[in-house]
Amino acid sequence: MSATATAAPVNEDRSFFGHPRGLATLFFTEMWERFSYYGLRAILVFFLSASVANGGLGMDKPLASSVVSVYGAAIYMSALAGGWIADRLLGSQRSVFYGGLVIMFGHVCMALPFGSSTVWLGLALIIVGTSLLKPNISSVVGSLYSKTDARRDAGFSVFYTSINIGSFVGQLVTGYLGEKVNWHVGFGAAAVGMAIGLIQYKLGARHLGNAAAAPSNPLTPEERGKAFTRIGMAVAGVAVVLVIMQLTGTLDAHGITNAISIAAMVLPVIYFAVMLRSPKTTKIERDRVKAYIPLFIAATLFWLIFEQAANVLNIYADERVEKTVFGWEFPASWFQSVNPMFLVLFSPIVAMIWLKLGQRQPSTPRKFAIAVASVGLSFGVLALAAMLTGPDARVSPLWLLLVYAIQTVAELLLSPVGLSMTTKLAPAAFLSQMMGMWFLATSAGYGLAAQIVPFYSAENEIPYFGILAICAVALAVLLWIGTNRVRKLMHGVS
Ligand code: GLN
Question: Can you tell me where the transmembrane regions are (predicted)?
Fold first, then answer.
């Protein structure tokens, strides 16, 4: 975050419902970006697995499911790189703009009906663009407020709402266009959404002042050479892996999926080791990083289940759920909009409960334990539906609504709490990287899921959902029992 940002007059501005006017600019930018991201995600598994005759890529469903998971893993993993580029090279404001531009071109590629090469290029561009936009737009939100500004948390809540409004509408629009008209028209709608977001960002940029405009920790000329050598080495490392995969005949969708899965799981381990061993980390900070590990593992398992919405639950909605109303079958992907809708409805209620409970509200590890148990319970509900109906019958849509309702409550217990806990437990020297670390939990969850989701089929729903539910509840119990030990390591942070 820019040191100059705190001096900017935007901090005193109250022209957007009591918040700085710049928040409106960021609100609509993030809304349109999430419109495009979730819009594409809602139909990706159907597009990849549709036959070529039906305009798809003709992949078998288990592989298509895995590809959707590793796409998510790569999206959240890349946030680390985007944060670094903003901190050291571009500043957050410019990163957001360039990121949005690259995302838009990614969706344009997806909109072109030229077969698989434009699809892979499109997805790669969206990953690169999102790495620049997603983590950095949050930094700009933070920079609109001074450190002591009481409106800060409320500002982030307003911002989280924009994510869910964009996701809600985006998935209805692209879901309908993709499934009922043409896949590429659906992807085109995502491109148009991102374009509107960008125009709006440019027009409203003046309201951001200099909030996070400059890099917070720019590379000095001496550091530049070293940094670029390291980047060169990393690129060369990836190139070597690709060459080895090519030579061993594994450079295909399966091989790339496995490679991203492994990276998503290994990266957090390396990162934790670096933070724990760094001489810049003090004794208390080291304890706090240790406290973060069980919470990180819980978050990984949470996202592993939660983020199966776009593949396993989408396929479930398509194949297993009754979707005809008044003789018209609505698109299966419309179920994707249920979670963001519930989120917007439930978040004021949860906020009120926390306010009422005040000091009596559960500690962060306890909230995490309840969230993980709940997300497990949501899969338990699906196992129960399978026991009651068998693999051939279709189930009432109410089952899926119940599943998403439980998952949304769980999300509210873990996702916003996790964001604020991350900033509190971060060692001073790793402040911005720790935010990237939080997104690595989603990435690791997706990466692990990529290896699990191929096992889903209508015939094995009871063991599939049942085993994951049991794992989640077991981990939640362990975390609940270990809460006091974790809290001790947190040294006063709750
Ligand atoms: N739904 C939220 C978003 O899109 C959080 C997702 C996550 O961290 N896995 O930003």
Answer: 38-57, 63-84, 96-114, 120-145, 157-177, 183-201, 227-247, 253-274, 295-317, 337-357, 369-390, 396-414, 435-456, 462-481
